[in-house]
Amino acid sequence: MAPNPWESPIGIGDARSAGRLRSAALSHADPQTLLLLWPRELRLLLDVPCPQPPRELQGLAFAQGPSCSRTQYPSNGRCCSRCPPGHKVAAACSGESNTTCIPCEEQHFQANWTKESHCTPHHICNQKAGLIVYRNGSKERNVICRCQEGTHCSSHECNTCRPHTSCGAGEGVQQEGSHANDTLCAPCAPGHFSNASSSTARCQPWSRCQEGQVQKANGTRATDVICEALPLPHEARKSHLLVLLPIAAFLLGALLFLWHRRGKCPRKRHQDLPPEPTENEETAFPTQETLLGEQAGMQEKDCRLAQQEQV
């Protein structure tokens, strides 16, 4: 085994030579080498005795007692056991006996290692306040209460619940409510609408008129686009006929009426007069000319009256 260069000079020569060698070694040694030295080698090199703590500190360390683990606690100079979760202390340790533990009673729990002699009662979920049991409790954990569906806590303590806010027309749900937070509403973006009050519905996009439809009304934040079907070709002709037929019937009736009135008037006077009778006829019917003349005069008078009425 190779000799230790730090110990060999100390065992040879007088004390004065050893001191000079120690100083020379320390002056030439780098910090990393000094950090690698063991405490014993440093003491031999420096010839310094191991320091002792003051008596005041020694008494303080003794008064603090023994160092106990997380599952223990100091008592009368010894470490006593804590009771595990779900238990409580029935009898503290004393003398040679250790801690006596018993389980927690019903509707109580203890979540940590403890030296307490009692357990904590479970929370009570008040249904009248809108609370329900979200997670049942045990001897090691508490009951967890939550608000019913559609409600949220009214405060940080969550002793009561209140219904979620409903977003009105023109608004939609940006974030749905939970057991802890209320509904978050926001106005509908352009091209979207909401026509109902709801705590869950979001804004819906406007409808698009399909082929064969025409947009009748524009959409708003609170209303959708209104579409209607285009009329078919035969329906368009039918609608046109329904408009034109009454007009044509009226015109035809007016023409018939005029034609009927004009048909009673003589076109020309000479056409209405009878031919001159011969000598035999004059002698045979002396009064026929007189009667026809009077009849023609009456017809001419009626025609003039009819023409004046038309004007």
TrEMBL record:
<dbReference type="GO" id="GO:0010468">
    <property type="term" value="P:regulation of gene expression"/>
</dbReference>
<feature type="disulfide bond">
    <location>
        <begin position="188"/>
        <end position="203"/>
    </location>
</feature>
<dbReference type="GO" id="GO:0006952">
    <property type="term" value="P:defense response"/>
</dbReference>
<dbReference type="GO" id="GO:0004888">
    <property type="term" value="F:transmembrane signaling receptor activity"/>
</dbReference>
<dbReference type="InterPro" id="IPR001368">
    <property type="entry name" value="TNFR/NGFR_Cys_rich_reg"/>
</dbReference>
<keyword id="KW-1015">Disulfide bond</keyword>
<feature type="domain" description="TNFR-Cys">
    <location>
        <begin position="146"/>
        <end position="185"/>
    </location>
</feature>
<feature type="domain" description="TNFR-Cys">
    <location>
        <begin position="187"/>
        <end position="227"/>
    </location>
</feature>
<dbReference type="Pfam" id="PF00020">
    <property type="entry name" value="TNFR_c6"/>
</dbReference>
<dbReference type="GO" id="GO:0006955">
    <property type="term" value="P:immune response"/>
</dbReference>
<keyword id="KW-0812">Transmembrane</keyword>
<feature type="region of interest" description="Disordered">
    <location>
        <begin position="266"/>
        <end position="311"/>
    </location>
</feature>
<feature type="domain" description="TNFR-Cys">
    <location>
        <begin position="67"/>
        <end position="101"/>
    </location>
</feature>
<dbReference type="GO" id="GO:0009897">
    <property type="term" value="C:external side of plasma membrane"/>
</dbReference>
<dbReference type="InterPro" id="IPR000436">
    <property type="entry name" value="Sushi_SCR_CCP_dom"/>
</dbReference>
<dbReference type="InterPro" id="IPR008063">
    <property type="entry name" value="Fas_rcpt"/>
</dbReference>
<keyword id="KW-0768">Sushi</keyword>
<keyword id="KW-0391">Immunity</keyword>
<dbReference type="GO" id="GO:0006874">
    <property type="term" value="P:intracellular calcium ion homeostasis"/>
</dbReference>
<dbReference type="GO" id="GO:0006915">
    <property type="term" value="P:apoptotic process"/>
</dbReference>
<dbReference type="InterPro" id="IPR052135">
    <property type="entry name" value="TNFRSF5"/>
</dbReference>
<dbReference type="GO" id="GO:0051094">
    <property type="term" value="P:positive regulation of developmental process"/>
</dbReference>
<dbReference type="GO" id="GO:0023035">
    <property type="term" value="P:CD40 signaling pathway"/>
</dbReference>
<dbReference type="GO" id="GO:0010557">
    <property type="term" value="P:positive regulation of macromolecule biosynthetic process"/>
</dbReference>
<feature type="disulfide bond">
    <location>
        <begin position="209"/>
        <end position="227"/>
    </location>
</feature>
<dbReference type="GO" id="GO:0002768">
    <property type="term" value="P:immune response-regulating cell surface receptor signaling pathway"/>
</dbReference>
<protein>
    <recommendedName>
        <fullName>Tumor necrosis factor receptor superfamily member 5</fullName>
    </recommendedName>
</protein>
<dbReference type="GO" id="GO:0045935">
    <property type="term" value="P:positive regulation of nucleobase-containing compound metabolic process"/>
</dbReference>
<feature type="disulfide bond">
    <location>
        <begin position="167"/>
        <end position="185"/>
    </location>
</feature>
<keyword id="KW-0677">Repeat</keyword>
<feature type="repeat" description="TNFR-Cys">
    <location>
        <begin position="187"/>
        <end position="227"/>
    </location>
</feature>
<keyword id="KW-0732">Signal</keyword>
<feature type="repeat" description="TNFR-Cys">
    <location>
        <begin position="67"/>
        <end position="101"/>
    </location>
</feature>
<feature type="disulfide bond">
    <location>
        <begin position="80"/>
        <end position="93"/>
    </location>
</feature>
<feature type="repeat" description="TNFR-Cys">
    <location>
        <begin position="146"/>
        <end position="185"/>
    </location>
</feature>
<keyword id="KW-0472">Membrane</keyword>
<keyword id="KW-1133">Transmembrane helix</keyword>
<dbReference type="GO" id="GO:0035631">
    <property type="term" value="C:CD40 receptor complex"/>
</dbReference>
<feature type="disulfide bond">
    <location>
        <begin position="83"/>
        <end position="101"/>
    </location>
</feature>
<dbReference type="GO" id="GO:0051240">
    <property type="term" value="P:positive regulation of multicellular organismal process"/>
</dbReference>
<keyword id="KW-0675">Receptor</keyword>
<comment type="function">
    <text>Receptor for TNFSF5/CD40LG. Transduces TRAF6- and MAP3K8-mediated signals that activate ERK in macrophages and B cells, leading to induction of immunoglobulin secretion.</text>
</comment>
